[in-house]
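4.2 Preliminary Data

To establish feasibility before requesting continued support, the project team ran the inverse folding procedure on a target of 774 residues. The structure was first converted into the token representation described in Section 3, and no sequence information of any kind was made available to the design step. The complete token record follows.
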């Protein structure tokens, strides 16, 4: 590796390092050494695959590891990177031997100049190693491969991906490598020892038990020598915590030899198991030598805030409103709160809004490909089935309305069980997203001619069977509903919110109106005389257009894969893509069966079923991935902060106007508003000028708090945009679903006009323009 060290070093130093690296590599095959993380044309990290034996006996244990050498000022990360970074990963592929868990030497701690970000990792040189055992049946040689994935950082970070391979001969006895053994021994000395084998004992006492979700806690950690020996001194950064499920942060501060003050904070969500204090503790100094220990001690169960004695009763299902959270900053003269949003909207107007909102859904990107597909089918159908277009229109509308009523029934059932749901809630379920993606891929392959539905298999233009043709139209209506739910068109959110806050009959009526609106454009095309005559004549263009529509469906599938990334992370996206490949294979096998007869046809059908079911069982497991993937704000706006009632309260108490964006990754209207309005320079400048606190409430995954907030303002889905005035926190302004630059800027100006920071006397008053309507 050419060690291009920091520009502060003289060239001679870099030359010496390069010569030393060259000598060290003499005993390693070229495939066992790699460099990566190029910066200004030079790699910043070198990795070498080391083995502590030159020959291995079958059944014997040996050590394998990856040695990292980093340029000065650069580092990689520990298994808990801290506030930033990524864990260094080594994936072993060792046929003929098994590799145990990775051994991590005690890490260094890095801080930004302001101390705000703290990370843990390694600089200079480090060996990450593991114990390996050769198979008792091993013979010839052992093939060792290590796929290394690391993030190499200085001020900026560069990903490093390297593949290292080498071969170790198998012989009658294990022969140690005299050059590699000292390197492994030195690394082993830096690995923390289990507490039971260290000669020390640790005990944790908490000030209060149990821990409260989302709340800080304190306690004491006592470290004693089982032999009664005095404890060695400590240096800075003597304790590095591991990732602790259920605990956000934890710190130790030495108050006396062997006694430490413990401070931490529980995560907002209650973990499934009782958390334990885990991490590594380093005793000693550079002058006296180090002795690192593994810390593993029980903490206490974490319970929800309502379960703590003296807290609010658990029977209160609705979370505290913003009004309750801001009791300390309310003006003395309390103005009556605004009436609930649904009280100002009658049933008749809600049905009109639902019908118009459903019609506008046809223009949304998630629905338009299906509508265009139906238009193609109608073009052919008009020429072939004169007199039956009305029946197809009715089947299409029936599929839409029936699906809407099923969706309404599901909403009522879930609501009866005590859970809050909203429009598009099914897109918070990874399995549902996977199912819709599979349907779209299958539809696209059908358009490409991989298999046929409703045709005789010999002619694309063959006449559709009467029963099957109507079912096909109804099925396209069902698919339109499935794809419509993540899109919230103008007027739709208000109407559906009204329905969710009302009784069962109203819910069914609003969803029926919504379905009729969604079916309107196609029905008009069918039923209005003269429109059919303006359709182009059938010809070769229809086959090409059909295939283009197939690509449109695949484009919608790309969006769904992106949605899956927000729900289950990169691992979930990979699982979904693997399943979709299996769907493609299964439909291809099914298409082959349509040209076969007898036993071969049934055998092909069986293979298709086995492929689909097997792939589904193997890949459609998203619970672990979703739980392990932390969720951050999905907004593209630079000023965005994660939403919480506490954060909003703090901003309003400080006199800042607040803008809250209720959004989700699967909401295309939300993303359209972000990219065309909220990310505009005019809006960002207005936020900066008026010191607006911008919060994002991400509803991509289920969040009962966000569901409750939506219902509080008469909405059942996203997007929803609130602008809160610090002088009138009880009367937030609800902006339309489709934003404009002017509407956002004007709302921000209204919210900041009466802000205490804009008044000479600093008083908190309610503006007349912001008073709730009587």
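Position-by-position output of the design step:
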């Amino acid at each position: 590796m050419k060690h291009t060290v920091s520009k502060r070093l003289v060239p001679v130093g870099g030359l010496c390092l390069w010569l030393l690296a060259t000598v060290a590599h003499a005993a390693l095959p070229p495939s066992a050494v790699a460099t990566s993380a190029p910066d200004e044309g030079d790699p910043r990290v070198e990795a070498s695959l080391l083995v502590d034996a030159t020959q291995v006996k079958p059944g014997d244990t040996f050590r394998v590891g990856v040695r990292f050498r980093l340029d000065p000022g650069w580092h990689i990360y520990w298994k808990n990177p801290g506030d930033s970074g990524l864990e260094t990963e080594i994936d072993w592929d060792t046929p003929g031997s098994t590799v145990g868990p990775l051994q991590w030497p005690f890490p260094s701690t890095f801080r930004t100049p302001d101390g705000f970000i703290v990370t843990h990792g390694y600089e200079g040189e480090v060996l990450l190693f593991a114990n390996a055992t050769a198979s008792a049946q091993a013979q010839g040689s052992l093939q060792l491969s290590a796929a290394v994935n690391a993030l190499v950082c200085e001020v900026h970070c560069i990903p490093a991906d390297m593949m290292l391979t080498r071969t170790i001969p198998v012989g009658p006895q294990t022969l140690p490598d005299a050059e590699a053994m000292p390197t492994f021994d030195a690394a082993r000395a830096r690995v923390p020892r289990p507490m039971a084998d260290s000669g020390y004992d640790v005990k944790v006492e908490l000030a209060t038990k149990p821990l409260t979700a989302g709340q800080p806690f304190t306690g004491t950690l006592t470290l004693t020598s089982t032999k009664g020996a005095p404890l060695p001194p400590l240096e800075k950064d003597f304790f590095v915590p591991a990732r602790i499920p259920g605990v956000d942060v934890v710190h130790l501060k030495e108050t006396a030899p062997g006694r430490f003050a413990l401070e931490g904070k529980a995560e907002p969500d209650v973990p499934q198991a009782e958390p334990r204090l885990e991490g590594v503790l380093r005793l000693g100094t550079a002058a006296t030598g180090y002795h690192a220990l593994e810390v593993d001690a029980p903490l206490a169960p974490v319970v929800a805030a309502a379960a703590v004695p003296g807290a609010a009763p658990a029977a209160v299902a609705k979370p505290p409103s913003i009004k309750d959270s801001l009791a300390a900053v309310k003006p003395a003269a309390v103005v009556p709160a605004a009436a609930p949003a649904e009280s100002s909207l009658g049933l008749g107007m809600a049905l009109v809004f639902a019908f118009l909102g459903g019609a506008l859904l046809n223009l949304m990107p998630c629905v338009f490909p299906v509508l265009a597909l139906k238009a193609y089918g109608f073009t052919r159908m008009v020429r072939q089935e004169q007199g039956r277009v009305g029946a197809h229109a009715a089947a299409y509308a029936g599929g839409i309305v029936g699906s809407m009523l099923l969706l309404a029934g599901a909403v009522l059932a879930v609501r009866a069980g005590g859970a809050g749901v909203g429009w598009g809630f099914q897109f918070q379920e990874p399995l549902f997203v996977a199912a819709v993606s599979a349907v779209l891929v299958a539809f696209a392959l059908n358009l490409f001619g991989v298999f046929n539905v409703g045709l005789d298999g010999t002619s694309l233009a063959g006449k559709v069977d009467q029963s099957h043709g109507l079912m096909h139209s109804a099925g396209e209506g069902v698919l339109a509903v499935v794809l419509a739910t993540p899109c919230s068109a103008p007027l739709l959110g208000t109407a559906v919110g009204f329905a969710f806050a009302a009784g069962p009959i109203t819910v069914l009526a609003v969803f029926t109106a919504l379905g009729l609106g969604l079916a309107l454009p196609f029905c008009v095309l069918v039923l209005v005389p003269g429109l059919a005559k303006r359709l182009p004549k059938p010809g070769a263009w229809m086959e090409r257009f059909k295939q283009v529509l197939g690509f449109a469906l695949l484009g919608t599938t790309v969006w769904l894969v992106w949605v899956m990334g927000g729900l289950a992370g990169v691992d979930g996206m990979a699982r979904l893509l693997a399943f979709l490949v299996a769907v493609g294979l299964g439909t291809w096998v099914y298409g082959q069966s349509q040209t076969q007869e007898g036993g071969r046809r049934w055998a092909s059908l069986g293979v298709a079923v086995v492929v689909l079911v097997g792939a589904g069982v193997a890949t459609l497991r998203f619970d672990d991935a979703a739980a392990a993937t932390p969720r951050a704000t999905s907004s593209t706006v630079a000023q965005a902060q994660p939403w919480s009632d506490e954060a909003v309260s703090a901003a309003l108490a400080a006199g800042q106007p607040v803008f809250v964006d209720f959004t989700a990754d699967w909401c295309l209207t939300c993303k359209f508003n972000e990219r065309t309005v909220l990310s505009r320079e005019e809006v960002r400048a207005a936020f900066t000028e008026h010191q607006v606190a911008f919060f994002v409430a991400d509803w991509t995954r289920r969040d009962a708090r966000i569901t409750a907030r939506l219902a509080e303002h008469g909405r059942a889905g996203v997007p929803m945009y609130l602008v809160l005035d610090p002088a009138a926190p009880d009367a937030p302004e609800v902006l339309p679903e489709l934003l404009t630059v002017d509407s956002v800027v004007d709302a921000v100006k209204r919210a900041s006009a009466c802000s205490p920071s804009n008044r000479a006397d600093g008083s908190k008053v309610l503006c007349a323009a912001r008073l709730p309507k009587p």
